[in-house]
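Q: Got a minute? One more chain.
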Amino acid sequence: MRFYLPQYLWLLAALPILLGLFLLTAKFRKDRSKKIGRPDTISRLFGRANFAASNLALIAFLAGIAFIIAAMARPQYPGGVEKIEARGGKIVVALDLSLSMKAQDFQPDRLEKAKREIIDLVEKLKAQTVGLVIFAGEAFVQCPPTIDYSAFRMFLDVADVGMISDTGTNLADAIAVSTKLLDDGSATDKAIIIFTDGESFEGDAEKATSEAADKGIKIYTIGVGSAAGRPIPDPESGGLKKNENGEIVLSKLDADILSKIAEKGGGKFFRATPGESELDDLYSDIKGLKGEEKEKKFRTLYNEKYRWLLLPGIILVAGAAFIPTSKREEDGDAD
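A: Always. Here it is, folded:
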């Protein structure tokens, strides 16, 4: 068994905190009831606390939350083996993780829009090796080229703004790192697909593009943003990013530079759209990438089993709410 999104398992650490809050609340209520009146009077007015039932409700609630968290991590079991053979070209997707990718031209933001498009594009690919490079002020390999698309998606899911501490958008470094990743001396067709908003580029992107083109690597650019621009969230203040004059900063798509890079790199520039029609055009271009005959490989297929945990989790949480934790005492019971 494996968890496709293991980062959610960290939420289990919150369960002891919840338990502590419940215990503190129970102690507070008990101390407060002592100040109000005698225990037998409180029992007749508000009912007698059923500690066994309260403990059962607490255990059921926490267990239900634990099941739900485990379901969110998407447990998967091996479901067989698939024989695959990579015959297509090699592709590296370069994803911009600069702060401006949190602008909300698309919902919920540019970054999530880019991720959705990357996932949809990868699902269209067949027998093509795909890698992932992330960049902001610097560029790093997030996922080496692979034909295991489920592994690629796992690395894509965890990519987020803040993973790279350096600020800015170093497109030149992203192209250089992607080129190095693809430059293996083989005759396979290769391409770099860059998802970015084209905001405040650093480095000599055109020089990096020329070096990639000299190695026979095509470059495609996908502009994720709008010409009108959108404000950028400021993680430090919790508001919107402002300049030195106190004015809200707007992040705008720089389509011109992205078009120049794509043209120089022998590829094409596309604008991200809500309908994602640009993916069809991009796919029609890159599906013709040719690869070398390769030895057949095998990969394990996994079946989703989150329902096994989600359903009992919901039942336990809902059931905890219906467990009576107190019993009203009648006058006769108090005698």
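A: The chain has eleven helices and 13 strands.
Q: Perfect, thanks.
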